[in-house]
Each structure stands twice: as structure tokens, then as C-alpha cells.
Write a structure and sequence with these properties.
The structure is a single chain. This protein has about 325 residues and is α/β, with parallel strands linked by helices. Helices cover about 25% and strands about 25% of the residues.
């Protein structure tokens, strides 16, 4: 049932919405009804929201756009903010707690807004060492990297792991997680990002503009493919970088339709991966961040009303780490 005691929470809120599918200019700020918290949901006052490639794909009519129930629609998965309402008095999360997590966009309203209602199972207390902007850059990207590197590939000490697009939003965490669990990490990226990639734990960096990674980084046990075949047949070429029986974990959906067949024909293994919003895993990642084992890089921060520009920058490529929307000022 809806929360019977909404207190002083307003009935309307500012949100970055789209009224139809299309380009970045479809994004605009509007006044819309605040979401109503039900069942196990937590109502969060959003301070910052992460910007992810799936947001832009969905806005353009790909991604998860098929699940949009109606317009206007609020995009955005990642958030960092403050708890406003909880399901019951003794709930582990309490009003005023600083939290972060992932929403279920677009089936429910997204996080490009002043408030978001999200299931308790996808919300965790945010790292004490991070501000809201950096916390908002973590959930989707870090959970994706954890799922690909730790849960799917089961990366462990002594393995050789190649991470494509290591300086990107997911890549920055994939490099760090693989290195944390003892792998010898090679990352692809531009020469401008080589220092960053080494600081994240990459033992070797391949400048994709100057070298063919399959020629200089062969014999890998695992490839974490964050590109697929949408650019220079990166997915297919990854098979040539593996040892016999090695594994490719491909994250971009639909970017390499013949992945499993191609891998099997080459004597390799391949699987996709789709992220799950899991507060328990996010709590583990929180501890790694607060212990200093994992860092978070934010490329740029945009005001909510500049969301269209954030999408243009994202789609232009070459973002280091994550882009973040500033929804509200940090609370005192």
C-alpha cells in the first residue's frame, strides 16, 4: 500500500524527461508527479544520478525502450541520495541515511529526477569516503563489472585477463576488480588513458589506435569485452587473444549476435552478461571503496537541465569513467 505518512515530501518534482523517442534534444526538465512508495520500496531524494550508455540507447529507441509504459518517461538507473521514506519503522534503512543504488527504469520512473522509488533490494548505504556525485557513478557500472569479472568469469590469482575499454565507466571497475583478485590485467585504451589504466591496476596497456591487441596480448584466460563488434570487430578479434578454451564475457547486448557460435568454432567459450541490482553485492563494493582498494573516476558533472548535453558527450565517446547529473545540492 502507499505510504500513509508522506510528511512534507512534495507531490510534484522536477525531472528530466522525454515525451518521445529520439535524439538528445528530446530531454527536457518538467514538473511531474512524485513517485508513490509502495510495498518494499524506499523513497529516495536524489542528489546525483549516473549517466549510462543504456540511457542514451533507450532514449534513441533501442536499449530498454520496449518496456516504456507511457510518456513522459524519466530515464536513469544510478542514483545517490537521501532516504525519505521506508517500508516500516525498523527497516535497516532509515530516513536521512545516505544511500546509493539502481532503479528499474523504464518500468518505473528513473533517477533523472528529484525523487525515486526503488526496491529495498537495490539500495545500500553509500561509501562514507565518497561524495554524492562519485557515489552516483558506481552502482550500474560497478555491479556490471563485478558480475562479469567475479561472478561469471570467476577471475582468480595468476590468470591473464584482457579488459576492453578499460578507462570507461564499467571498464574502470573491471580492471580494478580483476587486479584485486590477483589477475595479470591488460587493458585496451587510448595512449592518453595509459597512465590512468596503470593506476587502476593494469599491468599492460594496449593503445588500440597503434596496436592490434590480438597480436600483442595473446594467451589470455579471460576477455572482458565491453565493446563487441560495433567497433572494429573487437568481439570476434578477442577470440584470437585467448588461450585454447579461454572465455569471453561480452557485456554490450546485441553487439555480437553470433558470439557463441563463433567461440565454439574456435575452441573457445563465450557468454553475455546482464547486470542485476543487488544491494548485497553493492555493500561488498562499498567496503572495497572505503578500504581504498577501489577508486571511482568521474569525468564530468552536469546540471539536471543540461542532461541533453551529457547525452551528447556520452554518445561522442571517449568518456573517462562516468558522467553524472547533479540533481540537487549536497545536504548539510
Amino acid at each position: 500500500m502507499p505510504d500513509p505518512t508522506p510528511g512534507s515530501t512534495p507531490d510534484l518534482m522536477r525531472a528530466l524527461v522525454i515525451d518521445r523517442l529520439g535524439g538528445p534534444d528530446e530531454l527536457h526538465v518538467a514538473s511531474v508527479p512524485r513517485p508513490v512508495r509502495i510495498l518494499d520500496e524506499v523513497l529516495v531524494r536524489v542528489i546525483a544520478a549516473g549517466v549510462n550508455p543504456v540511457d542514451a540507447k533507450t532514449r534513441a529507441g533501442r536499449g530498454t525502450s520496449a518496456a516504456i509504459p507511457s510518456f513522459p518517461t524519466i530515464l536513469g538507473y544510478d542514483f545517490a541520495g537521501v532516504v525519505e521514506q521506508t517500508p516500516y519503522a525498523a527497516h535497516p534503512l532509515q530516513p536521512g541515511d545516505r544511500v546509493y543504488g539502481m532503479g528499474r527504469t523504464p518500468r518505473v520512473g528513473g533517477t533523472y529526477a528529484e525523487y525515486a522509488a526503488v526496491t529495498s533490494m537495490s539500495v545500500a548505504k553509500m561509501p562514507a569516503s565518497l561524495d554524492f556525485a562519485h557515489a552516483a557513478a558506481v552502482p550500474l557500472a560497478a555491479l556490471t563489472a563485478w558480475g562479469a569479472v567475479v561472478e561469471t568469469a570467476r577471475v582468480h590469482d595468476g590468470q591473464r585477463v584482457l579488459v576492453h575499454a578499460g578507462a570507461g565507466g564499467v571498464g574502470q571497475f573491471a580492471v580494478q576488480f580483476a587486479a584485486y583478485f590477483g589477475a595479470v590485467v591488460t587493458a585496451t585504451g587510448s595512449a592518453a588513458n595509459a597512465e590512468l589504466l596503470r593506476s587502476l591496476g593494469a599491468r599492460h596497456v594496449v593503445d588500440y589506435r597503434a596496436e592490434r591487441f590480438e597480436e600483442v596480448a595473446g594467451g589470455q584466460d579471460v576477455v572482458i569485452d565491453l565493446i563487441g563488434n560495433v567497433a572494429d570487430d573487437t568481439g570476434t578479434r578477442s577470440l584470437a587473444a585467448l588461450r585454447p578454451g579461454g572465455l569471453v564475457v561480452s557485456v554490450p547486448t546485441g553487439a555480437w549476435p553470433t558470439m557463441r557460435e563463433d567461440a565454439a568454432a574456435s575452441g573457445m567459450r563465450a557468454t553475455g552478461y546482464v547486470v542485476s541490482a543487488d544491494a548485497r553485492t553493492l555493500a561488498v563494493i562499498t567496503r572495497l571503496i572505503d578500504d581504498g582498494a577501489v577508486r571511482v573516476h568521474v569525468d564530468r558533472e552536469f546540471a539536471l537541465e543540461d542532461g541533453a548535453e551529457a547525452h551528447r558527450v556520452l554518445e561522442a565517446g571517449h568518456v573517462r569513467g562516468k558522467l553524472v547529473l547533479r540533481v540537487a545540492d549536497d545536504p548539510a
